[in-house]
Amino acid sequence: MLRVENICKTFFAGTINEKKALQGLSLHLKPGDFVTVIGGNGAGKSTLMNSIAGVFPIDSGKIIIDGNDITKTPEHKRAKYIGRVFQDPMMGTAAGMMIEENLAIAARRGKTPGLKWGLDSDNQTWFSELLQELDLGLENRMTAKVGLLSGGQRQALTLLMATLIKPKLLLLDEHTAALDPKTAAKVLALTERIVNRDHLTTLMITHNMRDALRCGNRLIMLHNGRVIIDVEGEEKSRLTIPDLLKMFEQASGDMLDSDRLLLS
Amino acid sequence: MIDLLMPTIAQGLLWAIMALGVYITYRVLDIADLTVEGSFPLGAAVAASLLAGGYSPWLAFGAAMLAGMLAGVATGLLHTKLKIPALLAGILTMIALYSVNLRVMGKANLSLLRVDTVFSIMRDIGGFSNAQAVLCVGIVSSLLIGGLIYWFFGTEIGAAIRATGFNPQMIRAQGVDTNFTIILGLLISNALVALSGALVAQNNGFADVGMGTGTIVIGLASVIIGEVLFGTRSFKNCIISVVLGSIVYRLVIAAVLQMGMPPNDLKLFTAILVAFALSLPLIKSKLGLRKAVK
The ABC transporter domain covers which part of the protein (chain A) (predicted)? Predict the structure, then answer.
């Protein structure tokens, strides 16, 4: 479904701040793969996500989704294939617009907007049902502006928007990191429910090792812009945090430097 | 008093078209677009030149709007394709338009005194008084433009433009090219500003290359006065507020002139008014804080 081949990305090349974020990273996701991504600070997790989403061009390598080479496709055109949820709950929705307006925009993801009226009354029941499934009472607040919602509510809405039209690939960039633990757990449970229900091919960055081990069928760990650990299925489900740390030390010859990863 | 009231309201309505243009950039797109300082006289210059050449007011309006669209696109391209900050892109177009406007008119000032304008035609054919003609045109054009804006920003494209103003990252992730929506927003805004310029020139009886000075400030004053006095509950509410704000602004100006303020101080007064209005949220929160402490 997703084929990332040998991609490189260097920021501030040729300056004192030069940062080689991705150094020949390759990754191949089968349809329906739910992959959790972990790694220390500066391992290249977010750069990988943003490269796939097309936020910036990559220096070399290839990105192919469902047989389409999108390496040079601009960000907005990749939206046809990709649903995204960001770390910042404010990023995924338009605060000054109503819940139903945000959903209506998401229902047109990847299509060129036309001169039809933006709110389609046929969609209202569909939206209302989907909101009901979130169990946040949003179905009664369809005309409320999104800016009035809490971070957790906004993130749940963003998740709904990213998956409203089934994406070929769902990118979750630490989408629970900015939420309080209780809300984070709720949003994560919702994520699993939607991903499993629709068999979405998913790439989820997390800073929480427990979540990374518990969720999905496959786990990869990045280090210095490469994949250094890649486990799936049976092997992954038997893995524990100490196992993972040992594997990391063996694979990288280094100690894990991220407090956030270890403490959470 | 009544003699003064009607033309002042009428004037407010003609300028309201410009204020709606400023609303689209300043509030919807979240860009302070200085192009309007050039596109307002551009609309006046294009319309005046055509009218002086004996062409119909309809053609003059159409050409003025087209010219305004081009000005908006110029700023849009500078901003999106060449990555020049929006404020600076607007200033560049504004300065360029000064020369363009001189070229369009051939001189700095073009009189429309013995020329058929939309108002003189209504006077001659419809038997309106001048003030009635201006009021009529003002009401019809405000309703028409206000209605069109409401419709357009409710469509799929319009929603995409609004979302661009709120969160460009989000709307790109939903598959919309934000360069396109920004350029389109600037195009619509400056078309309206130019149309307003064409109307005001015909009302004034001349087009002048300097008549654009302060356009952005008058536009902002109208937007903010309207929002403060008449609310921002919904998009429809906002549009009506801006039109009413433009009228109130003209009434305030007429009132202070009536009270004896020298006309030369008008721009200073407007600037202070806008500075005060823009700082209202801060003043309000400070006052609210003090109340809360008590």
Answer: 2-249
User: How far apart are the C-alpha atoms of A171 and A163, rounded to whole Å?
Assistant: 10
Q: How far apart are CA B261 and CA B269, in angstroms?
A: 9
In B, which residues are within 8 Å of A97 by CB distance? 159, 162-163, 166
Interface contact flag, A115 B157, Cβ < 8 Å: yes
Q: Closest approach of chain A CAs to the CA of B151, in angstroms?
A: 8
Mean pLDDT of B95-123: 94
Segment B170-212, tens digit of pLDDT: 999 999 999 999 999 999 999 999 999 999 999 999 999 999 9
B49-57 mean pLDDT: 95
Of the listed ranges B95-109, B151-165, B264-278, the least confidently predicted one is B264-278
Could you write out the DSSP letters of every residue in A17-79? T-EEEEEEEEEEE-TT-EEEEEE-TTSSHHHHHHHHHTSS--SEEEEEETTEE-TT--HHHHT
- The dihedrals phi and psi of A5, each to the nearest 5 degrees, come to -120, 110
Q: Is A167 near chain B, with CB under 8 Å?
A: no
- The more confidently predicted of residues A262 and A244 is A244
Mean pLDDT, residues B241-249 taken together: 97
What's the predicted TM-score (pTM) here? 0.92
Nearest to B159 among A76, A105, A110 (CB): A105
Question: Taking CB atoms and an 8 Å limit, are A75 and B159 in contact across chains?
Answer: no
- The CATH number of the structural domain formed by A2-81+167-263 is 3.40.50.300
Inter-chain touch A116–B155, beta carbons under 8 Å:
yes
- Is residue A105 within 8 angstroms of chain B, CB to CB? yes
Please tell me the CATH code under which domain B2-266 is placed: 1.10.3470
Q: How many CB pairs under 8 A join A and B?
A: 84
**The tokens 């000064």 sit on which residue?**
B98
Segments of chain A assigned to CATH 3.40.50.300: 2-81+167-263
